[in-house]
Amino acid sequence: TITLADFRKNGMQLFGTSSDDIITLTNGRALIYGGDGNDTITTGSTNDVLDGGAGDDKLYGQDGDDILIGGEGNDYMEGGYGNDTYVFAKGHGQDTIDEASGNDTIQFTDVNFSEV
């Protein structure tokens, strides 16, 4: 379990492990990559990038305009408030989006319409 509170440095990158990681960022901007394993990634009120990597991941963007990438596996993604972007690519599995509000975007990369 990794918890970072009041981390204000812009552009921080955090990489998980091949195990089941729990990563929580309560304040600060970051790109967080979960790696392999069934990860849970939670961020605070800033604009963050959450990439679950391989595994069945849970991504919680909270407030802010976040980018959520489930990666391989069947993932659960919740952007929270803000204008979030959900990214899907071929081989990402069957993902679930739970969205509260905002003008959100679903972005498909290398996916044919028949595969949706």
From TrEMBL:
<dbReference type="InterPro" id="IPR001343">
    <property type="entry name" value="Hemolysn_Ca-bd"/>
</dbReference>
<dbReference type="InterPro" id="IPR018511">
    <property type="entry name" value="Hemolysin-typ_Ca-bd_CS"/>
</dbReference>
<dbReference type="Pfam" id="PF00353">
    <property type="entry name" value="HemolysinCabind"/>
</dbReference>
<keyword id="KW-0964">Secreted</keyword>
<dbReference type="InterPro" id="IPR050557">
    <property type="entry name" value="RTX_toxin/Mannuronan_C5-epim"/>
</dbReference>
<dbReference type="GO" id="GO:0005576">
    <property type="term" value="C:extracellular region"/>
</dbReference>
<dbReference type="InterPro" id="IPR011049">
    <property type="entry name" value="Serralysin-like_metalloprot_C"/>
</dbReference>
<protein>
    <submittedName>
        <fullName>Hemolysin-type calcium-binding repeat (2 copies)</fullName>
    </submittedName>
</protein>
<dbReference type="GO" id="GO:0005509">
    <property type="term" value="F:calcium ion binding"/>
</dbReference>
